[in-house]
Design a protein that fits this description.
The complex is a heterodimer of chains A (326) and B (336).
Chain A: E1 2-5, H1 6-20, E2 24-28, H2 44-48, E3 53-55, H3 60-72, E4 76-80, H4 91-98, H5 101-104, E5 113-118, H6 134-138, E6 144-147, H7 151-163, E7 167-172, E8 180-183, E9 196-199, E10 204-208, H8 212-225, E11 230-234, E12 237-239, H9 243-253, E13 256-259, H10 267-279, E14 289-291, H11 302-308, H12 312-324
Parallel strand pairs in A: 2-3, 2-4, 4-5, 5-7, 6-7, 10-11, 10-13, 13-14
Antiparallel strand pairs in A: 1-8, 6-12, 9-11
Helix pairs in contact in A: 1-7, 3-4, 8-12, 9-10
Chain B: H1 2-8, H2 13-45, H3 60-69, E1 75-78, H4 83-88, H5 93-100, E2 124-127, H6 134-148, E3 154-159, H7 166-178, E4 182-188, E5 191-192, E6 195-196, H8 210-213, E7 217-221, H9 225-242, E8 246-251, H10 271-276, H11 280-291, H12 296-319
Parallel strand pairs in B: 1-2, 1-3, 3-4, 4-8, 7-8
Antiparallel strand pairs in B: 5-6
The chains are: A alpha/beta (326), B alpha/beta (336).
């Protein structure tokens, strides 16, 4: 096992897939000569040249669309958004082209493409740069959505995403690029659509993903001090959802709390709660609660931002609440 | 130079004969599009077709010229006004009509309708209904051609209404920056839905934008298939041989409204009649009759044959089955 940061794990996934398949290329702002805004693609231009590590001008709709058109013609693009906040400029390309073309052409075309980059809040970037895009992309049939929280998951899932024949939205985290973890020396893939139990427990299930995972694990540690055994289920893929893993855990613990970065209205948080109440209503000893962003635009001021973001101490309150509900 | 010399000589009998064959072909192909569109309009008023139906009547010469200007394997990417390209590129009118009827035998199995025609093997790579959204995608086809070295050229068509939109300009920027084998063609039919050019663009010469991207450009009124074909072919050659993209503005006119629901009350008095006097189909008709001595009876017979083809397409569409219920689950995701 090698120990590396998430950014390195992502880079190794890109490198291995580019070595394996000539059709794979990376395109985005500052991915080449600048070595990547967050250094994910550091050094790749030296290995693969500017034909396959393609710097673009600031033109999200333009280069996202170019990726889609190239994918239709047989290539396998990886499109990097410097942040998913900028993907809003390319939303039409993903919504109306990438997601719809296989269906709308009656299967004449496929769109094997990955859109990746950091998602959700970082630190004091203000409201336009602090948004979690899961609700937008998870809502679209035709798209797969992944969100990773460890180097191991980042590498294994990005490799699978690049090999997938569908458009895949792949969420990373600006604050977590430096998170270290073990990654096997030998090649491995993680299947899309499979959750991972990051901490086994018996009393309460915390369902989480991406930037929510460390908050969930902190919450579990706080709960442990109170004698509560929390199971942390990291979804890793948000579309398709791993219903089986969610329901298996909830049926065991009879209680669930969601911890994630993102607004409360709609989105995967609401979807997961709906599925739990439909499929495991009888197993529940308490309502399913969630710790996520407050329903406001993100303020810049540090004290206010801290109030809006999901926090382990507040998630603990929810854990205590569902424990006391029975 | 060689061609200039030839022009000064009297055309020999062989040239005239070639011209006759060519014009006859062009006339027939333009008329096939027009009769298809007329059949579709009739079916729409009968309630056989729903949704939006944007007719290509008046602009047929462009689709016919395009089909002749491209090579095998090239890609044509266009807007929701896409029936003309489908017919000129060789799609079966039966499949096209069945698509309008929402039938399983349609060009895309009843999944797309009028605005989303695709026939990969015939070179019709869409059929896009979000204005301007297809320009980056078309540029991606050209990116792939250069990456793979497959020698293909992409022709990306838009209307004048797309010229105010961002993705149009991002696409031209990227294509010019990366020297991609693509030809951008704006079919300027004078109206963005009901808004005339004068109220949508500060500079009405669309090709004035080309210099901002360093793109060579061409701009002309579409009168004959022959001239349009020749000038498009030049741009295609430039793209294929030198990876030099360009922007062409084709000045044209649609004789019908924006879509079937549009009575086109925004036209100036006499405007439609004036444009109709320069209808490329009428011009070809007169050339065949007056210059090449084809009788009205012969031309009438061609028309009847085409009307019969389109009537058959309508019958086929009408009698075809709707897609089975389970078809809605197909192709939302690709097979592994």
């Amino acid at each position: 096992m090698a120990v590396m940061q998430i950014r390195q794990a992502l880079r190794e996934a890109i490198r291995e897939e580019m070595e394996r398949d000539e059709r794979v290329f990376l395109m985005g702002e500052e991915v080449g000569h600048y070595d990547g805004a967050y250094k994910v693609s550091q050094g790749l231009i030296e290995q693969f040249g500017d034909k396959r590590i393609v710097d673009t001008p600031i033109a999200e709709a333009g280069f996202a669309g170019v990726g889609i058109g190239a994918a239709m013609a047989g290539l396998r693009p990886i499109i990097e958004f410097m942040t998913f906040n900028f993907s809003a400029m390319a939303f039409d390309q993903i919504l109306n082209n990438a997601a719809k073309l296989p269906h709308m052409t009656n299967g004449q075309f496929t769109v094997p493409i990955v859109f990746r980059g950091p998602n959700a809040a970082a630190h004091m970037l203000g409201s336009t740069h602090s948004q979690a895009f899961e609700p937008f992309y998870c809502n679209i049939p035709g798209v797969k959505v992944i969100s990773v929280a460890t180097p191991y998951d980042a590498k294994g899932l990005l490799k699978s995403a690049i090999r997938d024949n569908n458009p895949v939205v792949f969420f990373e985290s600006e604050l977590m690029y430096s998170v270290k973890g073990e990654v096997p020396e030998q090649e491995y893939l993680i299947p899309i659509g499979k959750a991972d139990v990051k901490r086994a427990g018996e009393d309460v299930t915390i369902i989480t993903w991406g930037q929510g995972v460390p908050v969930a694990l902190d919450t579990a540690a706080l709960a442990e001090q109170r004698g509560i055994d929390v199971e942390v289920v990291d979804l890793r893929t948000l579309r398709p959802l791993d219903d089986e893993a969610i329901l298996r855990s909830v049926r065991k613990t009879n209680r669930a709390v969601l911890v994630y970065h993102g607004w409360p209205y709609g989105g995967p948080g609401a979807e997961i709660i709906d599925r739990i109440q439909r499929e495991a209503f009888d197993a529940l000893d308490a309502p399913v609660l969630r710790e996520c962003y407050e329903d406001v635009n993100m303020p810049y001021a540090e004290n206010l931002e801290q109030l809006v973001l999901p926090r382990a101490d507040r998630a603990l309150e929810l854990v205590l609440k569902v424990m006391n509900a029975a | 130079m060689a061609r200039a010399t030839a022009k000064n000589q009297a055309p020999d009998a062989e040239q005239v004969s070639d011209q006759k064959v060519q014009t006859l072909h062009d006339y027939r192909e333009m008329l096939r599009i027009r009769r298809f569109e007329e059949a579709a309009a009739r079916a729409y008023t009968k309630g056989k077709i729903s949704g939006f139906l944007h007719l290509y009547i008046g602009q047929e010469a462009i689709a016919v010229a395009t089909a002749a200007a491209i090579g095998k394997g090239d890609h044509v990417v266009t807007t929701y006004r896409d029936h003309g390209f489908a017919i000129s590129l060789g799609c079966d009118p039966k499949a096209c009509m069945a698509e309008l009827f929402g039938k399983a035998t349609g060009l895309v199995g009843g999944m797309g309708g009028s605005m989303h025609f695709f026939d990969r093997d015939k070179g019709l790579w869409g059929g896009y209904a979000i204005v301007s959204s297809h320009f980056p995608v078309a540029t991606g086809h050209a990116f792939a051609s250069k990456y793979l070295g497959d020698g293909r050229v992409t022709l990306a068509f838009c209307g004048d209404g797309a010229m105010g939109m961002g993705p149009t300009h991002e696409a031209m920027t990227l294509a010019a920056l990366w020297k991609l084998p693509i030809v951008f063609v704006c079919e300027n039919n004078q109206y963005s839905m009901g808004t005339p050019l004068s109220r949508q663009l500060p500079v009405m010469d669309i090709t004035a934008r080309a210099s901002g991207y360093g793109l060579p450009s061409d701009r002309f009124r579409v009168v004959t298939v022959a001239e349009t074909r020749e000038r498009l072919a030049k741009a295609v050659r430039m793209a294929r041989e030198d990876n030099q993209p360009s922007l062409i503005e084709l000045i044209t006119y649609r004789f019908r409204g924006h879509s079937m629901s549009d009575p086109a009350k925004y036209r100036g008095p006499g405007e439609l009649d004036e444009w109709k006097r320069h209808d490329p189909i009428e011009i070809a008709y007169r050339e065949l009759k007056d210059k090449h001595g084809i009788s009205e009876t012969e031309l009438e017979a061609i028309d009847e044959e085409i009307v019969a083809e389109m009537t058959e397409a309508e019958r086929f569409a009408n009698e075809s089955p709707q897609p089975p219920p389970e078809a809605r689950f197909l192709n939302n995701y690709a097979k592994d």
